[in-house]
Write a structure and sequence with these properties.
- The chain has a four-stranded antiparallel sheet, covered by helices on one side.
- A hairpin with a 4-residue loop joins strand 2 and strand 3.
- By secondary structure, it is α+β, with helices and mostly antiparallel strands.
- The protein has two helices and four strands.
- The structure holds copper (II) ion (CU).
- Copper (II) ion binds next to helix 1.
Length: 66
């Protein structure tokens, strides 16, 4: 399992948290959003998923991974 913390711009409320966490979980990974630090801690299986795919899923929700 890989653990990566991404900086994500544009998250401001619980709706954003659910959108981001939901999009990542849909890929089969785990995500925990911290609104205060605008970060998303993700845990994923590198054999099954790329970090790029996770970033794309977050950006598809309308947020910017920086
Ligand atoms: Cu929001």
């Amino acid at each position: 399992m890989a653990s990566v913390t991404l900086k994500v711009e544009g998250m401001s409320c619980s709706h954003c948290v659910n959108a981001v966490e939901g999009a990542v979980k849909k890929l089969g990974a785990q995500a925990k959003v911290d609104l205060a630090s605008k970060s998303v801690a993700v845990e994923f299986d590198e054999a099954k998923l790329s970090l790029e795919a996770i970033k794309n899923a977050i950006e598809d929700q309308g947020y910017d991974v920086v």
